[in-house]
């Protein structure tokens, strides 16, 4: 008996040790690229070209961030990005949840055909040119609404939320209707509050997608007043690449002493600073949604 117990304890210890080592290694592999990006963003551009920078800046400087933040267009673009992210997330959550609730009701006759139509959009896309003509016919070109209207409902989010609603006991809905509540009141008072975990998960998906998007600004908005933060940062990287592609600039920086070295804008360092600035808001928001993320994703993605 003691031998068997000792054998079990040994297996448990080996498994725990191996599992811990594996998870630590996985965490290091996951965290290191972002940590290295932060270090490069805090290192002098000319020194970065030499390589060999890993976990600590060799020549500390904030010049890369000064270059990025000295662009006045970035601040207005940040306002546009924050606005589109908030509006897209709120509207997508509310409208998608309403539609998901309607499609989850068994008494709704057309719920299966409509669900199939939404699923088909996940596999087939008309393409960029038809989308452009559609948006132009709707008056969305060079319009702030081009950031909002196309993102109101996503088929994937609809399926996830509808599946989650299916796990809510039907007795709650029936009790509310016996008390005289209509569908809209049931949705607001019962369904919406109980969907908090899956809504937090979907909100994170939508917010990250809206915040990181820049291609729609490039295609549909030629006005500088509608440019987003990601698009401005992308243009800044392109300018840094062009300005430093001339080998004469590199030679001048190398022969100009410490002051010239500090003011040298290396595209790699600028790209790292841009990455840190762009990722910081999402990194700060994620811890508040983490407790809902796993529950919402696992429950909302499996249909029994």
From TrEMBL:
ABC transmembrane type-1 domain mapped to chain residues: 78-289
Where's it found, cell-wise?
Cell membrane
Question: Mind telling me which InterPro entries this protein's record contains?
Answer: MetI-like, MetI-like_sf
Q: What is its main location?
A: membrane
Keyword NAD present in the record's keywords: the answer is: no
SUPFAM superfamilies membership? MetI-like (SSF161098)
- Give the residue spans that cross the bilayer: 12-35, 73-102, 114-133, 145-165, 186-208, 270-289
Q: Which family does it belong to?
A: Belongs to the binding-protein-dependent transport system permease family.
Report what the protein is called. Answer: Binding-protein-dependent transport systems inner membrane component
